[in-house]
Amino acid sequence: MNEFDQIPPEPEAASEPEAASEPAEAPGASDFEQAPEAAPESVETPVAPVFGLTPEEPPQYQAPPPPPGYEPPPQYQAPPPGYQPPPQYQPPPQYGTPPPQYSYQGSGLYPRESSQGLLTAALIFMIIGTIGVAIPTYGIGLAWGIPMTIHAARIRNGTKPNTIGFGVCSLLFVGLIAGILLLVAPKDK
Predict the structure, then answer these.
(1) What are the pLDDT digits (tens) for 54-101?
(2) How far apart are CA 147 and CA 93, in angstroms?
(3) Do residues 143 and 174 touch, judged by C-beta distance below 8 A?
(4) Of 4, 82, 84, 144, whose CA is between 20 and 30 Å from 110?
(5) In the 8-state DSSP scheme, what is residue 137?
(6) Which residues, listed in sequence order, are joined to residue 53 by a DSSP beta bridge?
(7) Domain housing 157
(8) Rounded to the nearest 5 degrees, what angle is found at the Cα of 85, between the Cα atoms of 84 and 88?
(9) Lowest pLDDT segment from 58-72, 98-112, 124-138, 145-159
(10) Cα 57 from Cα 70, distance rounded (Å)
(11) Measured between alpha carbons, how far is 171 from 182 in angstroms, rounded to an integer?
(12) DSSP 3-state of 49
């Protein structure tokens, strides 16, 4: 039985001559005078089973069967008695002599007892010159000023040699006073 079968058929329309004989009603008057229609009775229709399930049965999900030849993995077993884990990795020993340890208090490859004050003044002017070169070049001068200042600090500590070439480059690229002080200081090579 279908829910459309229970709806009563509509009355057939009256012929036009009869409709003309009835008095005309004011528009909207019939809206208030008609009685509300009764709501159609709710009819329970049976639900067709979906994929063989009825609404009373909850869906049962099952895992697919394993492929042929599949064996479940073995369960974890404790190691047998007397089992020793493999030894930890040990790095191979280092051969040869260790690198020399340098001190930054002036006792390095190039001792600086007599000219320590001169090199300190040169380092201070290198720092001032690096800042002075960086300002007009919008920071581009830091690309050569910082490495040259670090090299001057290593000359002062005795880990780098004081050469004429570095003194001339300092004079041209960083500062006039720092370059002159490095040229006047005793040379190592």
Answers:
(1) 556 666 777 788 888 888 888 878 888 888 888 888 877 777 766 666
(2) 35
(3) no
(4) 144
(5) T
(6) 50
(7) 124-184
(8) 130
(9) 98-112
(10) 32
(11) 9
(12) coil
Q: How many CB atoms lie within 10 A of CB 171?
A: 18
DSSP H helices in the chain: 16-21, 29-33, 116-134, 142-157, 164-173, 176-184
Q: Is the pLDDT of residue 166 over 50?
A: yes
| Percent of the chain scoring above 90 in pLDDT | 29
DSSP notation for 29-70? HHHHHSPPPPPPPP---PPPPBTTB-TTSPP---PPPPPTT-
Q: Is residue 2 part of a domain?
A: no
> Is residue 161 a part of any domain in this protein?
yes
Determine how many CB atoms are found less than 10 A away from the CB of residue 188: 14
In a domain, 176, yes or no: yes
Say whether 53 sits in a helix, a strand or coil. strand
Assess if residue 64 is contained within a domain. no
The Cα 52–Cα 47 span in angstroms is 12
Q: Does pTM top 0.90 for this prediction?
A: no
Dist. CA 96–CA 102, nearest whole Å: 18
- Position 66: which residue type? P
